[in-house]
Design goal:
Elements (H helix, E strand, L loop, with lengths): L4 H11 L19 E6 L8 E2 L1 E3 L2 E4 L5 E2 L16 E6 L2 E7 L7 E5 L5 E3 L16 E4 L8 E5 L7 E5 L8 E5 L18 E9 L7 E2 L1
Antiparallel strand pairs: 1-2, 1-14, 3-4, 4-13, 5-15, 6-7, 7-8, 8-9, 10-11, 11-14, 12-13, 12-14
Length: about 210
Amino acid sequence: MQFSASFLAAALPLLAAAAPAPAASSAPVANSGPIGLIATHSASPIHLSSVNAAGQNFWIGKDTSSYCPLTPASSCPPGKNTVIEVLGDQAHPGTAAMDVVVPGGQQMFIRSNGALGYTQAHSASIPTGAITTGFTYTPPSGGAQFGTFGVSLPGSAGLLACPTGANFSGPYQVFVNLKNLKDSDVAGGKINKCIGMNALAVSTNGADAWQYT
């Protein structure tokens, strides 16, 4: 599920001035703490939409998919919002993970076709050719209310939201615009139909899900 209506209502005035996505940032990697992501690209269908985990991919326009084995169900986290964490420092390219309760966690990665993904719970298996570093978090500065999430890799050019619906509509799958990315790599089959995006990083109170599915 997307961030709650009350959360977005409070955040919208602060997000309204967000700009379209620039090229990949070279800002230092910082530990983000638990964050949720909000896509921004003014005057586009993805603007001010939450980025959600489902099916080991990241989406705009799909609900978060999560699971919790605990009983009673009231002892489980809500499982409605997608929360991640970027780890690292200036000396080490950033890694990132889902902020979850499940032992062993769930690591984030970038597939060889640029698709942003994460591991299954209870598994450290990473797809062949996937990249596990280069994730960045830039803290708020200059009076900004939110930080930013991104990817900084040689030749990369920011994040993309690629349409998967009829006539290049949503939902949109999130990709990293890797060097030499081809039409055949992205959802929808046409890079020029993808939307460049920023990802604002909104601090949260911690894990919202036992695990993401």
